């Protein structure tokens, strides 16, 4: 091959090599710009989700007004919330009264030996209200049926601290998160167990060697669903351990 032919081949080969290199760079840039897969996005999205308690704190802090405690008739807390929310609408007070909350908690109630998770009012007789306090907003709250007044100075109550509000509302938020399968940084406390027996109460034994005898409850063990009772045998009180389902109320 002559020197002229070799030179011609080199000049043709160099542009081809440069074109291949340019194509490779385009592919690499395209891969970098391509959207991430769902698997790659999932951890980032999960990291962006706030812990429910942190979200609660942000929500509480973002409210425009201050938080106050309102005293109600015990057992009327949720009704007071509904009535007050209706009054806020009726009196066009949405720009002064922003939020009404009844602190809740989850407990386990045992009736007829059957355990059941229920939501109950955490602080009977109290409702939290977030508001800008002035004479008009004070009157709308104070004159709500079943409200007896503000806690503290009736006419110039002291607002709660943010930490106090978060602490009151946390059990309800944790219970809701747990029910929804949402993980939280703080574990939900074990629900309190309520039973419809009382120490000193007389019950009737329904099963076992002491069936049909009356017994007095001396100890209640809700975790194991058992009772310690005193059964009178030959004019002597004998302690006996029974399950909840082995007794019934004496007047049942």
Automatic annotation (TrEMBL):
Belongs to the NusG family. GO terms for biological process: DNA-templated transcription elongation; DNA-templated transcription termination; regulation of DNA-templated transcription elongation; transcription antitermination. It holds the Pfam family NusG. Participates in transcription elongation, termination and antitermination. The gene is nusG. Residues 196-223 form the KOW domain. NCBIfam families: nusG (TIGR00922). Signal peptide: none annotated. It comes from Scrofimicrobium appendicitidis. The keyword Membrane does not apply. This is Transcription termination/antitermination protein NusG. Residues 64-172 form the NusG-like N-terminal domain. Keywords: Transcription, Transcription antitermination, Transcription regulation, Transcription termination. InterPro entries: KOW, NGN, NGN-like_dom, NGN_dom_sf, NusG-like, Rib_uL2_dom2, Transcrpt_antiterm_NusG, Translation_prot_SH3-like_sf. SMART domains: KOW, NGN. One of its GO terms (cellular component) is cytosol.
């Amino acid at each position: 091959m002559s020197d002229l032919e070799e030179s011609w081949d080199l000049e043709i080969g160099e542009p081809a090599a440069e074109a291949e290199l340019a194509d490779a760079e385009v592919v690499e840039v395209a891969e970098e710009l391509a959207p991430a897969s769902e698997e790659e996005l999932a951890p980032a999205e999960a990291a962006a989700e706030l812990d429910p308690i942190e979200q609660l704190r942000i929500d509480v802090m973002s409210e425009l007004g201050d938080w106050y405690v309102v005293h109600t008739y015990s057992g009327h807390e949720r009704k007071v919330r509904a009535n007050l929310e209706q009054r806020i609408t009726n009196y066009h007070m949405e720009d002064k009264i922003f939020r009404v909350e009844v602190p809740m908690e989850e407990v386990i109630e045992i009736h007829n030996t059957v355990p059941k998770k229920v939501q109950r009012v955490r602080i009977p007789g109290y409702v939290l209200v977030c508001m800008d306090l002035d004479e008009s907003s004070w009157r709308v709250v104070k004159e709500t049926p079943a409200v007896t007044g503000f806690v503290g100075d009736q006419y110039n109550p002291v607002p709660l601290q943010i930490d106090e509000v978060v602490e009151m509302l946390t059990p309800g938020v944790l219970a809701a998160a747990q029910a929804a399968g949402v993980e939280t940084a703080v574990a939900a406390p074990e629900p309190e167990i309520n039973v419809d027996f009382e120490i000193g109460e007389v019950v009737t034994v329904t099963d076992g060697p002491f069936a049909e005898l009356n017994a007095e409850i001396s100890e209640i063990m809700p975790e194991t669903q058992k009772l310690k009772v005193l059964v009178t045998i030959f004019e002597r009180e004998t302690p006996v351990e029974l399950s909840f389902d082995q007794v019934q109320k004496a007047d049942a």
